[in-house]
Design brief:
single chain, alpha/beta, 4 strands
């Protein structure tokens, strides 16, 4: 597991213990290697605490995380768990799927994560502009 996956799992555990959600949806497929992110993270969490979970194992990015999880969430409130560098973009994408959401995050100031997020934000902005112009 990556350090950010571990931090996200620990954040999920902390937020659950504080009573901020009832069911955890863990979303993510095997994008970077043969391990399905949702399954690996679920195993990590279940070794530490019993949390009701739903696994979504097909999403390959943040947009798909929300799109594919929407069928489980429907119109319920959503708590997004993310890194500090990813939280703003995640919330911007969440607007397209959920009417009521919040975000909790962990500090993550690794240069490679910051650079990846900057590139991802630029791509996100480009896609949003193309949508408004009717070209996407």
């Amino acid at each position: 597991m990556s350090s950010s996956q571990i931090k996200r799992c620990n954040l999920a555990i902390d937020m659950y213990k504080k009573g901020l959600y009832g069911t955890l949806i863990i979303s993510g497929s095997n994008v970077k290697n043969e391990y399905v992110e949702a399954e690996v993270m679920n195993t990590y969490i279940r070794k530490r605490v019993e949390i009701p979970t739903i696994l979504e194992t097909h999403a390959r990015n943040t947009f798909e995380n929300f799109k594919l999880s929407k069928k489980y969430i429907q119109e319920q409130d959503v708590l997004i768990l993310a890194s500090q560098t990813h939280a703003k973009r995640a919330c911007a994408i969440a607007k397209q799927f959920f009417s009521d959401y919040g975000c909790a995050w962990f500090k993550d100031l690794k240069p490679k994560h910051i650079i990846r997020e900057i590139v991802s934000r630029i791509l996100y902005i480009k896609i949003e502009i193309l949508k408004k112009l009717g070209r996407y």
